[in-house]
């Protein structure tokens, strides 16, 4: 599973994803700050990245209109230092459900959104 961290989140999530064994990048490091959301998501999808953001409304709508996407992970709007454990909670949720389905995490995330609440609880739904 590859994770693309949106500019609204701390870039420290990239290293945190690496510590969990996942490839990750962020909008800042890719020189895409200020890019329109639809263009940013299209770039992430073309490179098979799960898009990680706290911009629920915009990216859920964009993914709902996509025929195929690598997945969407939505964290709550929290201070930057509080985002790291929430990403860990999301990764644990994804790995657990992927294992139960007998799939790799990247395969399980296809056309799926995982939303994390302030307590770290996760829910997932197919999208579209």
Give a quick rundown of the structure.
The protein is an alpha/beta fold. It is built from five helices and six strands, in the order βαβαβαβααββ.
Essential attributes:
globular; 5 helices; 6-stranded mixed β-sheet
Describe the overall structure.
This protein is an alpha/beta fold. The chain has a 6-stranded mixed beta sheet, with helices on both faces. The protein has 5 helices and 6 strands, in the order βαβαβαβααββ. α1 runs parallel beside α4. It has one domain. β3, α3 and β4 form a beta-alpha-beta unit. It is globular.
Oligomeric description of these chains: single chain
Q: What would you call the structural class? A: alpha/beta
Helical proportion?
40-55%
Note poorly predicted spans.
Answer: none
SSE topology:
Blueprint lengths: L1 E4 L6 H8 L3 E4 L10 H10 L3 E4 L2 H9 L7 E3 L5 H22 L3 H5 L2 E5 L5 E5 L2
Parallel strand pairs: 1-2, 1-3, 3-4, 4-5
Antiparallel strand pairs: 5-6
Helix pairs in contact: 1-4
